[in-house]
């Protein structure tokens, strides 16, 4: 798999490979993080979340890693499938932000057959 | 259990007209959030509402934009005297509780507004 930061907008992977999508979040006080997947013409779809008292959380085929020291979040997708092709956003909550989510710019994941 | 519903899905307006966007939260959810997404960008928070209350409108432009979430019926985002720069996708999200401390927000399919 390949990893890319938010400054590179597109990640292309071969079907079956693992994907790693990275996100540098902005606020060191943020304590809750969510990864969303957005397919063309649709709203963001919840994938997985993690709180700041954890550094790893696993779901079905997805894992989120949190490194608070460097304010870095990553989403790992195992055995990437064509249906994983979408734009992926990380979002953060900060205490005192009155419930609003702050979104990153997004990365397009393109899966090659 | 139906998800968050938004209508219309697509809306075309001429400059100067009004746009009304509607959002029905998920069943059991009493907290609604509106976000705007410009092409090739992430979502930007606009406003957070509970029934009959605006909790946080810090992301809402000061003029022409207003939002409400009445006791009965959907939440409405209203844009008066639309300009071309208002063209964007507008997403509504809902959560069962306030989200303080983190509560997952579930998004609707969005309304794509095009101002001619």
**Relative strand content of chain A:** over 45%
* Helix percent band of chain A: under 10%
If helices are DSSP runs of H or I spanning 4 or more residues, what is the number of helices of chain A? 0
Task: Please give the most extensive interface between any two protein chains, plus how many residues each contributes.
Answer: A-B, 26 and 31 residues
- Principal-axes shape call of chain A: globular
Question: How would you characterize the overall build of this protein?
Answer:
- The complex is a heterodimer of chains A (113) and B (116).
- Chain A is mostly beta strands.
- Chain A is built from no helices and 11 strands.
- Chain A has strands at residues 3-4, 10-14, 19-24, 32-38, 45-51, 56-58, 62-67, 72-77, 86-93, 102-103, 107-112.
- In chain A, the strands form 2 sheets. In chain A, strands 2, 4, 5, 9, 10 and 11 form a 6-stranded mixed sheet that branches. A 5-stranded mixed sheet of chain A has the order 1-3-8-7-6, with no helix packed on it.
- The two termini of chain A are 15 Å apart.
- The relative contact order of chain A is 0.32.
- Chain B contains no helices and 11 strands.
- The mean pLDDT of chain B is 91.
- Chain B has 116 residues and is mostly beta strands.
- At the A-B interface, strand 4, strand 5, strand 9 and strand 10 of A face strand 4, strand 5 and strand 10 of B.
Main attributes of the structure:
heterodimer, A: 113 residues, mainly beta, six-stranded mixed sheet, five-stranded mixed sheet, 11 strands, globular, disordered N terminus, B: 116 residues, seven-stranded mixed sheet, four-stranded antiparallel sheet, 0% helix
